[in-house]
Design a protein that fits this description.
The chain has 14 helices and 57 strands. The strands form six sheets. The protein has a 14-stranded parallel β-sheet. A 13-stranded parallel β-sheet has the order 3-6-26-29-32-36-39-42-45-48-51-54-57. About 55% of the residues are buried. Helices cover about 10% and strands about 30% of the residues. The chain is mainly beta.
Length: about 700
Amino acid sequence: MSLKDQLSQYTKRDYPVIEGDIYVSVSGSDESDGSREHPFATIERAIKAVRAMKAGKGGVTVCVHAGEYPTSGLVLTPEDSGSADCPITYRAYGDGEVVLNGGVTLRAEDFTAIDEASRARLHGTARDRVVRVDLKKYGLTAKDWGRLSPIGAFGTEDKYDDCEKGANCELFIDGRRMTLARYPDEGFLRLGAVADVGDVWEFPEQNYHYDWNGRRNHRGGTYIMDKPTTARAAGWRDTGDIWAYGYFYHDWADSSTPVKGFDIAHRTFYPAHVSRYGARKDALYYFYNVFEELDAPGEWYLDRESGWLYVYPPVELKDARIEMTVTRKSVIDAQNVNYVTFEGFTVKGTRADAITVEGDHNTLRRLNVYGVMGNAMAVKGRYNLVTDCEVSHTGKGGVDMTGGDRETLTPGCSRVENCLFHDWAEVYMVYCGAVRLEGCGNVCAHNEMYNAPHSAIFYYGNDHVIEYNHIHDVVLHSSDAGAIYSGQDWAGQGCVVRYNCLYDIGGGEFTPDGIYFDDMLSGQTAYGNLLINVRKNGFLIGGGRDNFVFNNIMVHCGKALTYDDRGRDGFMNNGWAVAAVSSYENGSMWKRLRQSPYQSAIWKKRYPSLARLSHDFSDPNSPEFAPNPAHALVYDNLVIDEAGSIGRIDSSVKEYSDVDRNMAYRSFEEAGFEKDSYTLKAGAQAFKDMPGFVNLPLEKIGRY
């Protein structure tokens, strides 16, 4: 049995029908009493009924029968809270799929052949295949669909007076996101050259223009296209609302910009918005919102003046589900609400986050969330639980979980567990994880995550636990990123990353890392992880302190383990991290440290080594001087590498920390693994070389 099969033995469970107190049915009436015999028609009406009946009861359950429930947003307020003695549950009854849809359903019969003027602008099979529909038939106006808004995590649109920020409307057919007409249809172009990087914040690398933040409407620059792209652009008739999206300098910094114009004679185009980090030759980008490029199945275009929506159908529309996201509200929005559960629903159809919950002791269980521009769920508070959910085809991420108090190190005790995440970050392609933990003391456990352009898990704060996750085929479109990532904080201590399996990390030309403790992140513990076929580093530890990394297995990685000294190198040798550490007043690492209560009594007791940090620039060789990679323990890590290398450990890491008994073997047989297994045999050579090494609990990893 392959490792993937071993970790994918999840069996979907059947859930019994449970009777409730209030019933909802698509065939019901809001004038009814909400009983099983006379159900309400809407969940909104059921919410009102719960308010009236919950006092004095041991709990209230709303059962929702199968069907689709269009909604402009279910809103719960503090008066909709339950309590420990009276929890509130909204539950799919169990007689079929229950869909909460914030989108607008378009009828196949309303689509017609395109007019001759449009036909003349298209080419190839598109002329006969593209159809259109008048959105005004559905009562929609330009206010509903709006202008195009920028996409990308590192855009500069907030620096421009004429930009409409927000989330774009989208088209979905049979649950799959359609592509706004673009060139090329797939993949990216490469900039031929850059004539003018524009008025940037940083360029060249590590050269900052600090006055940039105080100015507006920065000059966008001048980019050079290659010859084939120039020839293609020469055929675009109306270029007034064409946009470009790309990684204009770093492959971890995506942004978009309107195109002010093209100069075909000189192969140039002019971005209206400057790229924050400048631009470079061969940078990846594409053009979109180009009517003439409506030439492939699954592409669409909206004439925002007339309201005509054009689509090249990927399937026969007569049998398809055609939906447009218009609302900017969450489908479920619960603010300052406690002890409420939503269970068993399909949630889709919004330009916002699908579900937002703020409060304590809330549960999101067995939800299927897809077809939204934002995140699937944004949950804030303590003792919240997201479990048994499936998330796919989101524009941003999966679950954004915030909880706990860093100031007092009070744990959030919130969990994301036993969920399936795939095909997320389809629009915002960087820094949108399947799970993002923030605050203090939260858990991400027993999830499966795959098929995404960037990281699977981000975490920031203290005392989080990331364990038993099954992660594969992620970070497919970035090299400076990790499947599990955190960074830039000496005070972000107490987090544990254990018993996760990561494999096939990276894709194509991209060579990312597996577990990445970036830019002097400190106080992390990582053990019992299995990392296989990671393109760059199994572990990349970026110069931090007090990191404990042991009892991990790394197989066929570019480098198994890299622990560098970027902080010390920046301070002592003017290395690339110099701006972060060389000034106590202005360095980003020092600023972030001062913002934490690391000298408080609570923090001193919890992180005694952190409390001893020194900012004495006259004694930079002290182990306690913060930029030095001190007090780390790196031991008993098992590596399979044909060259017999464990990777790269910088000399100052060895000077200031303990690095010992990390063993590299050229084959599984040499290490002593069982056949077709990642478990060591009794008497294996690895056990002799590392007597403290313990086999990993592979049977516990993944969904259960």
